[in-house]
Design brief:
It is built from five helices and seven strands; from the N terminus they run βαβαβαβββαβα. The protein is of the alpha/beta class.
Amino acid sequence: MRIALYQPDIAGNVGAVMRTCACLGVALDLIEPMGFQWDDRRVARAAMDYIDHVSVFRHADWDAFQRQASGRIVLLTTRGATPLHDFAFEPDDILLFGRESAGVPDAVHARADARVVIPMAPPLRSLNLSVSAAIVLAEGLRRTDGWPGAA
């Protein structure tokens, strides 16, 4: 299992997701362009010393990402069709999260193999990107016995 971020806007969110990926032993795909400079100190500050413990793969654009993607692309979206608690995860799923400001374009939405929504109390519609990524990754790892040290 891995996380992919589609054109993320906020360096701090990317740093926090990097830290989550490092701690849970999963890789991170960053689909460019991003809304900040990669050398931005805020990424390193949020990821802290965990930055050296995560595999990060940067892709020039959506097409470059798709060419290397193996496994189902599972889009997390407020327009999701399947509630998180009903989704059947697979160990090689790629958990795709859209831009904080705009989500993903319709073509990316249509390409996803599955569209999943995190249910929440109305009238609220979304969580912070890094919080969403941690919730979904934890549930996916739990359901596939993928937690570090589990077996």
